[in-house]
Write a structure and sequence with these properties.
Four Helix Bundle (Hemerythrin (Met), subunit A); 6 helices; 145 residues; 89% helix
């Protein structure tokens, strides 16, 4: 196994961990204040896994660019479009995850408006992560690095 393939495996593990944690964070937020301890814990884990996946993905990009991306550009332009959308959403989601962590204690307070915002923020982040994770899996099946 090459270093790039090992990095891709770690990237996938961290990414799907982030998907799971953000999805659970959103689901726990729907349960209300009785889940407050889990919300704080899931917020930290979701952010740590997402930052790890994002960082690894950024490191792997040059290898992807010279292998799989060349193939996608010439033979599967729709795959290139999927990848570009995934990358743009992932970049925007990084800012969203940082925001969730920064205002997490406020989100999970007794203020109903803050709580509603927390549900929307985590739900949006989870949806982006699901799209990114599934798209990454499909693209890797089409042409691994």
């Amino acid at each position: 196994m090459t270093l790039a393939k090992f990095g891709l495996l770690l990237h996938a593990i961290f990414a799907f961990g982030a998907v799971a944690m953000m999805t659970h964070l959103w689901l726990w937020s729907l349960k209300g204040e009785r889940a407050i301890g889990r919300l704080h814990l899931h917020t930290k884990w979701a952010a740590a896994l997402y930052v790890a996946a994002f960082g690894l993905g950024s490191t792997l990009y040059p290898t992807f660019r010279t292998t799989a991306r060349v193939h996608f550009d010439s033979h599967l332009p729709w795959a290139t479009a999927l990848f570009e959308v995934k990358e743009h959403l992932a970049s925007m989601n990084l800012a969203l995850v940082v925001l969730i962590v920064a205002i997490g204690p406020t989100l999970w307070s007794s203020d109903k408006k803050a709580w509603r915002a927390g549900k929307w923020l985590t739900g949006t982040s989870a949806a982006i992560l699901w799209y990114s994770g599934l798209t990454g899996a499909v693209l890797t099946l089409l042409r691994p690095i």
